[in-house]
Structures are given as C-alpha cells and as structure tokens.
Amino acid sequence: MNPLLSPPAFFRRRPHLGRSLVLPVLALLNACGTAEKSADERRVFRYNQPEALTSLDPAFSRNQANIWAVTQLYNGLVELNDSLRPAPALARHYDISPDGRRYTFVLRVGVRFHDSEVFAGGKGRAVTAHDVVYSFRRLLDKTTASPGGWIFRGKVLENGQGEPSDTCFVAANDSTVRVYLKEPFIPFLGILTMPYAYVVPHEAVQRYGKDFREHPVGTGPFVFRRWDEGSAIVYHRNPNYWRRDAKGKQLPYLDAVQISFISDRKSEFLTFQQGKLDFLSGIRAGSRDLILYPNGQLREDFAGKFRFEKVPYLNTEYLGIQQDPTNLRGDADQPALRDRRVRQALNYALNKPELLAYFLNNVGVPGHSGFVPSSLPSFSQQAVPGYLYQPEKARQLLREAGYGPSKPLRLRLSTVADTKEISEYLQKKWAEVGVQVQIDVNQSAAHQEMVDNGRAALFTKSWLGDYPDAENYLALFYGPNFSPAGPNKTHYRNPEFDRLYEQAKLERDDRRRWELYQAMDRLVVRDVPVIPLYYDQVVRLTQNNVHGLTPNPMNQLVLERVWKD
Predict the structure, then answer these.
(1) How far is CA 401 from the centre of its chain?
(2) Among 520, 547, 184, which Cα is nearest to 378's?
(3) pLDDT tens, position by position, 143-186
(4) What is d(CA 481, CA 14) in angstroms, rounded to the nearest whole number?
(5) Distance, CA of 407 to CA of 399 (rounded, Å)
(6) Which pLDDT belongs to residue 2?
(7) Exposure of 293 in the CB half-sphere (CA atoms within 13 A)
(8) What is the DSSP letter of 3?
(9) In terms of Cα–Cα distance, which of 307, 254, 301, 305 is closest to 280?
(10) Which residues make Cβ contacts (< 8 Å) with residue 488, sequence separation at least 6?
C-alpha cells in the first residue's frame, strides 16, 4: 500500500549532477564480461530505481522495486496479457476442473534455467514440475520467512490443523503439476501471475541460502551479472531464452539492462533529460510542476522531447473510518463517526476534482464511485454512483445527526508527513461545513500500527492492487478479514456484503461476477467505511528511441520485447 503523494513544490534550481550518477553503471556493464559482443549502448535499457531494492529473490517481491527487478529474471506458470488476463507462460496450457478445485498445468518443453555454477558443468538444466512444487512450498516454509505465503494460505487444500496440506501441490510427472484448492477461488490464476509465484531452482537456493537474494537464477529473458549495492545492477541478455516473437526471432531484443539508484527525484529527471536514462515512472513533487501544467498536460517546453503517458494505476487513495470502537481509547474514540449520516456528510464535503488539480496536477481520477478503481473492467460509476461535492447536503446531514453551531462536531484525522498538506486541504473543506478536525501526523510505522490494530478512528490510507481483480479490493470489507490478520482495517461488517462476496468467489461468468462486485461496492458507498479520494494514475516518460514498452494498470515493467533505435 502506498501513501498519498505529497503536494507539488515548484522546481527552483537544478542540482549539480556528478559523473558518479551514471558512469559507474556503464563501467560495471563493460567490466562484467560476456561471450557476446561488447554492449552497444543502443541495445542497453537503463532505468532508475529511487526506492530501496532489497532482494532479487521472488519470494521477497513485495514492492515495486523488487518486482520490476525480478520480472526480468524469472517466469511463472502464467502471466498477465495486455488485457490483464492470465495467459500461459512456463505452462504451455492449463486446465481447471469442473468443481474449480483442481488446477492442472502442463509445462513447455525445452525451458532451461540460466547457466550457473550451481548446475553440473555450469549449464542450466531443464525446468520440471518438481521445480514448481518446490518454489510454491518454499513460499509456505517458515524458514524462508517470505511475505508472499498469503497467496496460498487459506486457498489451497489444508490438513486437519488448518495448514496447507502436503498434497496441495503435486508433480504428477516431470511436465505436469497440479494445485488443489480447498474451495473454488475464481481469481486464483491472477494470483499465480504475481512474482511470488515465479519458479526458482532448488540448487541455487540451497547453495546460496539467504544470499540467494543477490545470486538469482531464473528462466527469464535476462541473466544476472552484478549488483553493486547503492550504485547499479546489471543484467545481460539470456542467449537461451525460451520465447520467440511472432516472426520466430528469439527474445529479448536488448543486450543488457542496467538499473541505477538515484534517490533524488530532481536528479533522476535531469539524468533522464540528459538521455542517460531510457524510462521514468511516477514523477513526484520535485519535478511534477516542472513537467506538467496544473491541468495534467505536458508543458510545451518538453513537447516532442520524449513520450509522455498518463495511464491508470490499480491504486485507490482513501480515508478509512473505523467501525469497531473496541480498541479506540480516550480522544481516539469518536462516537460521531459511527453515525452513517456523519460519514456521508464528510464525503459530500470534499471537492475531489479540486484536490487533484491543486495537489497532483490532475494525475488521477476523482473518487466519485466506490472503492474499486476505475481501471478494472468491473468499474462502473453509473452502476456504483458515489458522492459528488455537495456542501449543503453535507450540512443538512450534520444537522440531522444533531450537529451545528451550538454543538460543533470535532474529529481527529491520523496521517503521515507525506499526506500532511492534503490532510490540511481536507481539514479546510470540512471546516466549511462546520466540522472541526485536528490533524495528527505520525511516523509511517506508527501510523500503520495504529490503523492495523484499530486504534485510529479516521485515517489516510491507500490500497495498491496485488492482482487485477476487484475481489482484491472488496476483500477489505469482508467480515472474516478483520485486521491485523486480514486487510479489513475498518472492521466493516455487513452480512449482505459477506454473502455477495462468498457468492462472487464462486461465480465463473465474468459479467455476473462483475454485477456482484458492483452490488458489494454499492453497499460500501452507502455505509461509508471508507471515503475514496481518487483512483490513481501513473505518469511514464520514455525516450523517443525506445519501442515496445507498453503500460498497463499494474504498472509492470516487461522488457523482453523492448528495443531501441
């Protein structure tokens, strides 16, 4: 989950860019050595990773930095296609049993792990179904301590103790693997597209142990060469990659990938301007006003200098309202928020288009529907109408709830430093309808702990989708999913919602399932356990000579079909 972006600050001066930001990367690239010809810079894709990259082990691909890095090195059984639907990858085909509880995957022939010293003679061996079983079991192994075990827990077949069964993953033979679920779960294929489910060889994990994080061995289009922490990561083309393009040409087209670690966003953008980076994603406050007009359009100074894309992103930024007073103590307990009319009034009081224009240069879509973001196919503002800016309606609801000049409503909003200025805007809009709000700014870890444990009555939060299905968003309101064990941080409970949720999990017809999702989202809109502020978008900047890099709402970075001229 990502915090709200902080509001923009005008760029005033350009910091000095030392040669050290870029030159060490090229030096590393040339120092690695390869049997292929020396890398032509036109065949090297360069991107920057300003956030911390902690591991190249798929079992720890919990943030975007790690996800982008491991996506170039590994494959899973299935992957998302351009329509965000699961499609075969290492599995050449798959089958789901009529009862929805058994998934059978038949592997492609001839897929090999990268050449590595962990294999006999240094040559990568063929991938088998046993590798898939090993990789999946490894996620559930307590000694791995992976944060990704949740993708299987509660879904696959369980033993009498409620733990994943020894028979939930089965290699029927070298090329066939079966996964058994305890009950049907329609989004399961989407979950298997996540990097947590990438396939790894047991030889590398056993050889390197915890150091596997920096000695990755996969099946992907690129092969790891070097990681100089804090400076650069370098990958080279996998000459034995299993995939070809439509004309039969072996992928990838690029010779190498280099990842730099420039943490300052202004420096990052200037490095891109100098042509030393091929791609940027997610511009921030330091350069947003430099690049964009307040209406979200690219400034004329940059027209034609690079490609500018503003695309949907599976992230909903919202305010949460705790429904369960059990852990609210002292001033944190705000009984007024348990009145639905008050929660509705707080929503009507917010001018969400104005918020986007003032603070985010219109990068985002106003939260005028439910919790499900606008980039998912089940989204429909017509089917799930939300709250438009109606301050008089807000005042009327507050009066009906018993609040007014003689009895003002006083609340506290918990937030973090990155959202402080946006929170102050919300405070101003609420004051206009007679609600006095105190802002409590906390450290991120403390804020997360308060929210997870139900000790914040009104709080800022975000939900970044793990996989492209509305179920992943609506799970935040399912009764059995109460935090801290589950994602239901507002402790919303509604038997009708739970019934629809359980029905939707079994519904195979997309249109009917979307109708169920919309019915659930209408209940969320009515009861207001959350106030959606906006559905996020991401800005991507790409050099004009880069081709084949296509965006999607998951903000994936897939480089196997990218080329430069």
Answers:
(1) 38
(2) 520
(3) 999 999 999 999 999 999 989 999 999 999 999 999 999 999 99
(4) 48
(5) 10
(6) 38
(7) 8
(8) P
(9) 307
(10) 475, 476, 477, 478, 479, 481, 482
Distance between CA 177 and CA 131 in Å, rounded?
10
The pLDDT of residue 285 is 63
Task: Dump pLDDT digits (tens) for 255-270.
Answer: 999 999 998 888 898 9
Task: Tell me the C-alpha distance between 195 and 75, whole Å.
Answer: 8
Question: One-letter amino acid identity for 101?
Answer: R
With tokens 């699961």, the residue in question is: 86
Which residue from 375, 320, 318 is spatially nearest to 529, judged by alpha carbons? Answer: 320
Question: CB–CB of 146/138 below 8 Å?
Answer: yes
pLDDT top residue among 27 and 21: 27
Q: Which pLDDT value is given to residue 331?
A: 83
Tokens 């994943």 sit on residue = 164
Using pLDDT thresholds of 50, 70 and 90, give the confidence band for residue 36.
Answer: very low
The full DSSP string for 485-534 is TSSBTT----HHHHHHHHHHTT---HHHHHHHHHHHHHHHHHH-SEEEEE
Single pTM value for the model: 0.87
Q: What is the mean pLDDT of residues 98-119?
A: 97
What length does the chain have? 565
If one counts every other C-beta atom within 10 angstroms of the C-beta of residue 451, the result is: 22
Characterize 108-135 residue by residue with b for buried, 16 or more Cβ atoms within 10 angstroms of its Cβ, and e for exposed.
beebbbbbbebbeeeebbebbbebbbbb
Which tokens is 272 given? 């891109």
Q: Can you read off the two tokens belonging to residue 491?
A: 């402790």
Report which of 440, 342, 447 is spatially closest to residue 395, judged by C-alpha positions.
342
Per-residue pLDDT at 8: 31
- What lies within 8 Å, CB to CB, of 53 at 6+ separation is 65, 66, 69, 233, 259, 261
pLDDT tens, 65-87?
999 999 999 999 999 998 888 99
Taking only the tens place, the pLDDT of each residue in 221-242 is 999 999 998 789 999 999 999 9
CA distance 477 to 330: 26
Per DSSP, which regions of 141-231 are E strands? 169-173, 176-180, 222-228
